[in-house]
From TrEMBL:
Alphabetized SMART domains for the sequence: AAA (SM00382)
Any one biological process term the GO annotation gives: DNA repair
Catalyses which reaction(s): ATP + H2O = ADP + phosphate + H(+)
Catalytic class of the enzyme: hydrolase
Domain AAA+ ATPase: from-to ranges: 66-349
Protein name as it appears in the record: RuvB-like helicase
Signal peptide boundaries: none
EC number, as in UniProt: 3.6.4.12
Pfam families, alphabetized: TIP49, TIP49_C
InterPro entries noted in UniProt: AAA+_ATPase, P-loop_NTPase, RuvB-like, RuvB-like_C, RuvBL1/2_DNA/RNA_bd_dom, TIP49_P-loop
Species per Swiss-Prot/TrEMBL record: Cavenderia fasciculata (Slime mold)
One annotated GO molecular function: DNA helicase activity
Amino acid sequence: MSNIPKLGEVKDITRIERIGAHSHIRGLGIDQSLEPREVSEGMVGQINARKAAAVILQMIKEGKIAGRAILIGGEPGTGKTAIAMGMAQSLGKDVPFTAIAASEIFSLEMSKTEALTQAFRRSIGVRIKEENELIEGEVVDIQIDRPASGAGIRVGKLTLKTTSMDALYDLGSKMIDSLVKEKVTAGDIIRIDKGSGKITKLGRSISRLRDHEVSGAKVNFIECPEGEIQKRKEVEHTVSLHEIDVINSRAQGFFALFAGDIGEIKPEVREQINQKVADWREEGKADIIPGVLFIDEVHMLDMECFSFLNRALEDDMAPILIMATNRGITTIRGTNYRAPHGIPVDLLDRLLIIHTQPYQEKDVLKILKIRAAEEDVDISDDALALLTRIGLETSLRYSIHLITSASLVCSKRKGTEVSVDDVRKVYDLFVDVKRSVKYLKDYQDEFLYDTQPTTTNDQKMSDV
Ligand SMILES: Nc1ncnc2c1ncn2[C@@H]1O[C@H](COP(=O)(O)OP(=O)(O)OP(=O)(O)O)[C@@H](O)[C@H]1O
Ligand SMILES: [Mg+2]
């Protein structure tokens, strides 16, 4: 059992792989007026879908929409995942973006709805505004009284000044420890965060410049601060609702272990947190930032999950939901009902649908060129033209894969530029789906458990 990786690790691995395929995408490639540029930020063509995505993105940025859902539908390899990744790149750094594949929901560690709830709450940011009280000044004097016995509570006094005032503070033992640890002495200019008690040495007072006590070490001499010693400073930070959930359920400590808690967060904890966040909003201490939840391969969800989505989108703290699928009219998972995209009609009814179109030759060529550059592969024009043809006849993904393998073949023969021959070689080595199916059909009698290669009951997008 010990070599079974934990869920978290597995997820991370798939995430790295997924980023790899789209690492050339740096945004949606749109200009100021939301018009997609033909080639920009790693994005090529697919103009209509990109434009639609850009409009959605703009609405998200302006904070105008929450609880809306968008579906990107189209044939395999037409850039649906790429467009979602492009949107993610263009969101501000404070806007949370969560990407999952629908199949990740089905795990033994937690129920489907819990996994979905977590994904939703990961996608909602809470911007918390805090006012920190700071004490800032030059140390005039520190007095620490040690009890004669050496034990017991230590007490002390700290005198600080600015150019306009000075003040005396009583020190508790925790503060004394920090002052000793930071080696604070008279003449230092320090900042104390009143909330956390953290002490920062800002430098040494210029008035001590002539002192010989600090020779050698690099010392930063600064002016004695002006004005009040106590200052207020507003700090902002953004965390996701899920992060708040996790922190608060951990506080229950290790008793959670005995309660058989397997990573699910109790509904009571979430309710309390929702209430807390609502209070903070009312007091002006926090803002909600609806982020984006991207569910790829959404046809892998079942009825229960879809009905959960219906409900969850109605919550007033819902994020924007973006889904993608390459299925046409197909059965809804776990039922005998057929529906467009394998999605129940009541959910479909709430969606804005974006379609991606199959690529033309010029687009495939450009995408392959960008991928070659991304993978640092030098490739001849003929070889690129051949790859483009392969891409059109088989699939864009297949030809993207061939770039990597052809470059390996190339470096094996100590070449510097991938040639037509290198591409031919890998084309023979690795078959695409069409040839693989043909092979299976030709030799089906020799395979174990042979049955006719079944056609699925899925229709292609183009048949819809
Ligand atoms: N318009 C585009 N510009 C640049 N790269 C693209 C574009 N469209 C697709 N790609 C790249 O081509 C590959 C396949 O595209 P992608 O994975 O986005 O297809 P998909 O529509 O999600 O397919 P599937 O339905 O199989 O999931 C990816 O590496 C992607 O980054
Ligand atoms: Mg995809």
